[in-house]
Write a structure and sequence with these properties.
Strand content: 15-25%
Number of strands: 5
Shape: flat
Number of helices: 3
Distance between the termini: 11 Å
Number of domains: 1
Length: about 120
């Protein structure tokens, strides 16, 4: 997983903006944390790329990030290089195939995490 902290455009309203590549999900992601969000679980206020292969083009992650932070030149190339270097974990696809092939319900609670 890669992670790049960006400088917020307005530090009074945005506390943190993060972009990166998530290998297990095979997705680029953006997390935006607003200063006035009192989320007790410290979850992002806005986020994309949290589902399996949800964001396969770094431009989508950069587009959201650019609304809240200064995005350095070359960030698309950086994220693409992160994805190429780290690759994709195929385990989520295998789990999806198991669900499709099995007779419901499949209980995966006791399965060890492969990544």
């Amino acid at each position: 997983m890669s992670r790049h902290d960006l400088t917020p455009l307005d530090p009074d309203t945005v506390s943190c903006v993060i972009v990166g590549w998530d290998r297990p999900l095979g997705s680029f992601f953006t997390h935006v944390y607003l200063t006035d969000d009192n989320n007790e679980f410290d979850a992002p206020t806005f986020e994309i790329g949290t589902d399996f292969r949800e964001v396969t083009d770094p431009a989508a992650a950069i587009e959201l990030a650019s609304m809240y932070a200064k995005v350095p030149d070359g960030m698309s190339a950086t994220l693409t290089a992160d994805a190429e270097r780290e690759g994709i974990c195929e385990s989520p696809a295998v789990v999806g195939i198991l669900y499709a092939a099995a007779t419901p319900p499949v209980n995966t609670d006791g399965w060890p995490c492969p990544f």
